[in-house]
Amino acid sequence: MDIFRKCFNYTDAREVMNAGIYPYFHVLETKQDTEVIINGKRTIMIGSNNYLGLTSDERVIRAAQDALGKYGSGCSGSRFLNGTLRLHIELEKRIAKFMKKEAALTFSTGFQTNLGIISAIAGRNDYIICDSENHASIIDGCRLSFAKVIKYEHNNMEDLERILKNVPDSSGKLIVTDGVFSMSGDICNLPEIVRLARLYDARIMVDDAHGLGVLGEHGRGTGEYFGLEDEVDIVMSTFSKSLASLGGFIAAKEEVIHYVKHVSRPFIFSASIPPANAAAALEAMNIIEAEPERIKRLTEIADYMREGFKKLNIAVGASKTPIIPVMTYENERTFVITKMLLDE
Q1: What is the domain partition of the chain in residue ranges?
Q2: Catalytic annotation on 88?
Q3: Residue tagged active-site, from 101, 241, 245, 264
């Protein structure tokens, strides 16, 4: 059988294209901002992860330009060999300080970060206990590891405890959860996860891609939001959202970072973050720390939008974050509404 058969027989997307309501891969003709140009038309952007508006901040752009001039367009190698710049070290120290962890490690993409940390930490005799609505990168990281993977019902702490009770005491246990879930905007029940992790001798990893720069007084994410920063063993996040760049990082104890640096295949065998991206993320982090009012303003805007939807009798999810799911219930209806909004 031809392995390409599935490609030739895939018709779902083309059917939507032929109906004139295909909602994906729109081409932006301007930089990410509150308004963008799509098909020559000014469009309000409410679907971006540019939470703090820093992708268009002149300070971030200038930092990227300066790094481009100093270090060139790329690193031409892995961090393991010739691809480590002083800029990478500076960024990692800055992340560790901001996140209140002993050390940090950067990866070239957020997706790669989860592949790299999970596959390095969890082995054949270990268990990964994973929220059923975790991001795809976590799911693929679990697949890449040789650990046994068990999913618990979304944010269901009784189900999590049921699973933990049945994991052998002799096995390592890693609870992995999104801090803010990217589809629903829910926040994980971190206080209860911490309690159960300590009760059943498990470690905790939080993917805070949508929590960094969003939750907590200083924007340090879910741990700060709940006052439990010291209880999270591994914090993962990305540069492509609040930090206005591209890449990802983990922050943890120094021994954990040292181990991952030397065994994580996605880290070792990938080229390092380009200088411009590293510099942009570093400057964005400096701005977040210096201007915490941005976080408060983001919360106010999200609350305003949520209330606005409700006043228009538009059903939305019960999130407390800037991720506001608008409930349309059917794919085709979603596609039609998307086209209507873009056209009008």
Answers
A1: 58-290
A2: no
A3: 241
Residue pointed to by tokens 């949520």: 306
108 is catalytic: no
118, 251 Cβ separation under 8 angstroms: no
Residue found under tokens 């060139």: 72
The SS3 of residue 110 is helix
pLDDT digits (tens, 9 = 90+) for 25-72: 999 999 989 999 999 999 999 989 999 999 999 999 999 999 999 999
- What pTM, to 2 d.p., does this model score? 0.96
Cβ-count burial 253-268 (b if 16+ within 10 Å, e if not): eeebbeebbeebebbb
The residue from 108, 145, 182, 264 that is catalytic is 182
Third-level CATH fold of 58-290: Aspartate Aminotransferase; domain 2 (3.40.640)
In the annotation, is 241 catalytic? yes
Catalytically annotated residue among 88, 137, 210, 245: 210
Q: 134-187: per-residue pLDDT in tens?
A: 999 999 999 999 999 999 999 999 999 999 999 999 999 999 999 999 999 999
Fill in the DSSP letter of residue 178.
E
